[in-house]
Amino acid sequence: MKVNYSIRDLEHLSGIKAHTIRMWEQRYGILSPNRSSTNIRSYSDEDLKALLNIAVLNRQGVRISQIAGMSPGEIEANVEQAAIVEGVPEGQVDAMVLSMIDLDEDRFEKIVSTSTLRIGFEDTMRHVIFPFLNRIGVMWQTGSITPAHEHFVTCLIRQKLIVAIDAQYAKPSEETKTLMLYLPEGEWHEIGLLFWHYALKRRGHRVIYLGASVPFADLVSVGKVRHFDWLCMIGTTQPSVADLEGYLHRLGDAFPGRNLAVSGARFRDFHGRMPTGIRLLDGEESMMAFIESV
């Protein structure tokens, strides 16, 4: 893991403003950063964990003065209890980050299971797990976690989604739609697509799940032999920026007159010409509105 963090790193990773961190340091001595010869602060992995623990309790309404009076063991015990019992999403995200850093599967499972019992699996995905994955994205950019940490939690989340998908069954009706879901070639970020699979099956629709990294020629071949009402794709890192508009036009040309939908981070800043017939879902609310309206 990263050895030194700047105060801006800690702000991004914890959601606590840099000026608040400085104030807490000066007034309560909650962290002990190293300082360079020019008085620039740098923080350790232990400082990061301590701040994340403090963030969990502070978001639960515990005053910083109270937290400062606790021992490290008392803080950790209160954090575990607060993240499970109180169920504030921001605090749960902080606690999940800590469980990822420590590779603590039991703690991670407990947070997710308790949230699922309280608000249901779908809302746990939307309001706890997806914000957690967004936080992981920030940590990845700052070098705060290793690939092993990311793989550890994404495998746990993927397992839960597959179990939830398998539990969904509804007898087909006249309103039942068939949706084909896939990721473009080179795209392996499957959690979002698995969530679509779950949410659509939960609403009684059929899903043809092609999964990750589907070559374009294979997609076209499958599309010729299987009926679908919608073809849906999520792109996080693929198609490449240089090929994005071209890929969309090839998609439109391959399936003329068909219902097509695309979503994902790759399309958020797309300013090219969107082919006729392709619906852009530009965020979670747009995605959920689509799922509800299918």
SSE string = HHEEHHHHHHHEHEHEHEEH
Secondary structure class reads alpha/beta
User: Largest beta sheet: what is the strand line-up?
Assistant: 4-3-5-6-7
How many strands in all?
A: 7
Tell me about the biggest sheet? 5 strands, parallel
- From the alpha carbons, calculate the radius of gyration and give it in angstroms: 22 Å
How many helices in DSSP terms? 13
Strand content range: 5-15%
Distance between the termini: 44 Å
General form: elongated
Helix content: 55-70%
Mean pLDDT equals 88
Poorly predicted spans: none
Description:
By secondary structure, this protein is α/β, with parallel strands linked by helices. 56% of the residues lie in helices and 11% in strands. The chain contains 13 helices and 7 strands. The strands form 2 sheets. Strands 4-3-5-6-7 form a 5-stranded parallel beta sheet, with helices on both faces. The protein has a two-stranded antiparallel sheet with strand order 1-2. The radius of gyration is 22 Å and the shape is elongated. The mean pLDDT is 88.
Helices, strands, pairings?
Elements: H1 7-14, H2 18-28, E1 34-35, E2 41-42, H3 45-59, H4 64-68, H5 72-85, H6 89-101, H7 105-119, H8 121-141, H9 147-166, E3 178-184, H10 191-202, E4 206-214, H11 216-225, E5 230-234, H12 244-254, E6 260-263, E7 278-281, H13 284-293
Parallel strand pairs: 3-4, 3-5, 5-6, 6-7
Antiparallel strand pairs: 1-2
Helix pairs in contact: 3-5, 3-6, 5-6, 5-7, 6-7, 6-8, 7-8, 8-9, 9-10
